[in-house]
Write a structure and sequence with these properties.
Elements (H helix, E strand, L loop, with lengths): L5 E6 L7 E5 L15 E6 L16 E6 L4 H13 L4 E5 L9 H7 L2 H4 L1 E5 L2 H10 L3 E5 L6 E2 L14 E5 L8 H6 L2 E4 L11 H13 L1
Parallel strand pairs: 4-5, 4-9, 5-6, 7-9, 7-10, 8-10
Antiparallel strand pairs: 1-2, 1-3
Helix pairs in contact: 1-2, 1-6
Amino acid sequence: MTTDAIFFLQCQNPACQLRFPLDLAQFEGKFCPRCGSPLEKDVPRVESQSFPASNHSQHTLIGVLDNVRSAHNVGSIFRSAEGAGFSHLHLCGITPSPNTHPAIVKTALGAEKMLAWTYAPNALRQVEQLKADGAFIIALEATPEAKSLFDFSSNKIEPTQNILLIVGNEPAGVDPRLIALADACLYIPMLGNKASLNVSIAFSIAAYHLRF
């Protein structure tokens, strides 16, 4: 049984038939918001399960957000990074932080409390230090020399080496100085006409590829 009051409701007007979920503990939900006809409560939502992965990379994964402006994107990255088992996020430059931007908290849904993070005004200085400490640096950017993310394997990276994943500003991309520091520059292959993805989506794809 579901532990909350979210149900799928259906409009009883044959010309409308709008079907949508609603939390009945917060909203009464008697009339269709589209046509005003009566609604019928159908089934409760499926209760989500957690399925921990048994086969995955044991590397410590760290994210660097270089001048990612959107608080919503930062919140989404927090949620994906926590799900992929990242140990830390470095928020750099003009990237907003959870303690100053409520939109991050709203989008991260608690992940910002589960995942360690720090702020640094200069990503270049931060990454230089992490590289000096032995991290393997990956810049996610479609440069002419970049390799496909899906041709990349972390198997040849020393198990004791941390893997650092850098994503950059929209539309400027990753700082060229950071790309120069990178041990690998990777791109995500595209089949459509649009040449890029939203930064939080791109980070999530790369994060889960590196982990699994």
